[in-house]
Design a protein that fits this description.
Radius of gyration of chain B: 24 Å
Low-confidence stretches of chain B: none
Helix content of chain A: 25-40%
Structural class of chain B: mainly alpha
Low-confidence stretches of chain A: 1-26
Number of strands of chain B: 0
Number of helices of chain A: 10
Shape of chain B: globular
Mean pLDDT of chain A: 85
Strand content of chain A: 15-25%
Oligomer: heterodimer
């Protein structure tokens, strides 16, 4: 497939203009490419024929009402849905031009490359240090204690948590506040240096101050990472993302530059949702 | 407030007070019974208790003697049964909670539940048939196996329940970092449930340390200190049983003292395990 793709891009009928590329990332490379993706929970089809390209080093936000499939879609990108019994995927998801659903794909290697932050912060009942070190240990990334400590510190700094926890790395992660726990989970994901970071409503359980910290963090992280964030909060999508995708009832309705999406969307359905006519 | 609402309110208050006192009363009854038993045993047992009694082996009536060999025997039996019963039970629990799903797991769960309900004397007879008869003699090993068989289903089910309490998000968090399933189970899920699993293990140990019936056919009992796992071995419960049904007052007193020791032993193990598995995080 073409390396230089217009991004973001969806299959849109000819009568409409292709969505414009966000100005910060002129003709970025496609990192994730999804083609004809269907997803089933048992007999219920949760995703219908998704086609989407996600360019490298941008923040893409998924918005849509509850149950529209945006989280399910996010979880197809690191095969997290494999864990749920009775699910089925068809179609193609390629990351760096490798089909991640091809037979023989190393799921462990995939998840190292595609990190994930969950809606509810889920630190392990271990110390702060051990939480961040976990991914490094299981993947045997570091070869010495000092290297491990260095990577942990770097990850905590990247997640803007280092200054708050540097004096108590050995205390329980569960003693941190909700916002700190979520940044710890981000640090944990960053420690193994993924290329893509999936965030499933990372700030939905946090207060406004903690939320703004996470949002600033996302802004910083996009220099290095491709970030896909699911959010319920449209203001948040508008604040943090370069491009936005709108899902409804398991279908991808529109993908557009965030600015255009929230001012002059192409689709009537998008406009109805954004202006609060439903959802 | 009108009259009807006031009346409804009064009824609600009265029934609430009534129910609260009822639950308090039942709690008192249950806890009170336990304390009565403990106090009675302490009272009856303390008289014959001295250091010599704890380290001596039994002697003929009138010559004193002690339960040192039975204490050691009980500890050996608990050691053997824990060595087999705890790992197997925990492994079955892990299978039921983390690995198995579908029909096979429900069959296993049903079998485990059935095992829990098997009377312990049946377990004793079973081990007698498969171990004691072929070996042609009673042994500490056979006693330990019988106790382990009683432990496995208890440990398996409590382990399963405790693992199911570990939030699913923890497993997903570890998987998302590229951890394979077995490392998630060993490194994250089991430690998160450790104190609960230890409680289950405790319950199982406490339960089997009070067992007499399965030991009668397997460990049999002995008047001497154990020298090998391949010979009959004394245990506190069998010793208590033998002394209690004897016609001698001295042995009755010793049975009470041995009971007190057994209770203290169980309490001691309980406290040690609690301290060791205290939630660190």
């Amino acid at each position: 497939m073409a390396v230089q793709t217009m991004a973001p891009r969806v299959d849109v009928p000819e009568r409409r203009d292709l969505p414009s590329v966000p100005s910060e990332t002129p003709s970025a490379q496609t990192k994730i490419s999804v083609r004809d993706l269907d997803f089933f929970y048992g007999r219920t089809q949760a995703l219908h024929n998704i086609r989407l390209d996600i360019p490298e080093r941008v923040v893409m936000a998924f918005i849509g009402p509850s149950g529209c499939g945006k989280s399910t879609f996010l979880r197809t990108l690191n095969r997290m849905n494999d864990v749920i019994p009775g699910t089925r995927v068809s179609g193609e998801v390629t990351i760096d031009e490798h089909d991640i659903y091809a037979a023989g794909t190393d799921v462990v290697a995939l998840r190292r490359k595609v990190g994930m932050v969950f809606q509810k912060s889920n630190p392990f009942p271990k110390s702060i240090f051990e939480n961040v070190a976990y991914g490094l240990r299981i993947n045997r990334v570091t070869s010495s204690k000092s290297e491990l400590a260095g990577r942990v510190e770097q990850a905590l700094q990247d997640a803007a948590l280092w200054n708050e926890v540097k004096d108590r790395l050995k205390t329980s992660a569960l003693s941190l506040s909700g916002g700190q726990q979520q940044r710890l989970c981000i640090a944990r994901a960053l420690a193994i240096r993924p290329q893509i970071l999936l965030m499933d409503e990372p700030a939905s359980a946090l207060d406004p101050i903690a939320t703004s910290k996470i949002e600033e963090l996302i802004f910083d992280l996009k220099k290095q990472y491709t970030i896909v964030i699911v959010t319920h909060n449209m203001q948040q999508a508008a604040r943090v993302s370069d491009t936005t995708a709108f899902f409804l009832l398991g279908k991808l309705i529109e993908v557009n530059a965030t600015e255009k999406m929230f001012t002059a969307p192409n689709e009537k359905l998008t406009e109805d949702y954004i202006t609060g006519r439903f959802g | 407030m009108n009259a009807i609402a006031a009346r409804a309110d009064r009824i609600r208050r009265i029934s609430s007070a009534l129910m609260t006192s009822l639950t308090a009363l039942c709690t008192l009854l249950a806890v009170g019974a336990l304390f009565l038993i403990l106090a009675y045993i302490a009272l009856q047992g303390i008289g014959s208790l001295n250091f010599q009694f704890l380290i001596d082996s039994p002697r003929p009536v009138g010559e004193g003697g002690g339960i040192g060999n039975a204490i050691m025997g009980s500890l050996v039996l608990l050691g053997i049964s824990s060595a087999f019963g705890l790992p197997i039970g925990i492994a079955v629990g892990v299978y039921l909670s983390e690995v198995g799903n579908g029909q096979l797991a429900s069959i296993v769960r049903f079998i485990v539940d059935t095992l829990t309900g098997i009377p312990s004397i049946v377990t004793g007879v079973f081990v007698y048939a498969i171990l004691v008869l072929p070996m042609k003699h009673f042994s500490a090993f056979a006693g330990g196996v019988a106790l382990a068989l009683i432990m496995v289903p208890i440990v398996a089910r409590t382990t399963e329940e405790m693992l199911k309490l570990v939030p699913h998000s923890l497993r997903e968090g570890a998987l998302a970092l590229g951890a394979p399933q077995w490392r998630v189970t060993l490194g994250v899920v089991l430690p998160a449930a450790a104190s609960g699993i230890a409680t289950g293990a405790m319950l199982a140990i406490a339960r089997v340390s009070g067992e007499t019936a399965p030991l009668l056919f397997t460990a049999f009992g002995s008047r001497f200190f154990p020298t090998s796992l391949n010979e009959p071995i004394a245990s506190l419960t069998v010793q208590i049983y033998n002394y209690a049904i004897s016609p001698y007052d001295e042995w009755h007193a010793q049975a009470w003292a041995a009971t007190l020791v057994l209770m203290t032993l169980i309490l001691g193990i309980n406290i040690i395990v609690r301290v060791l598995t205290r939630r660190k995080f």
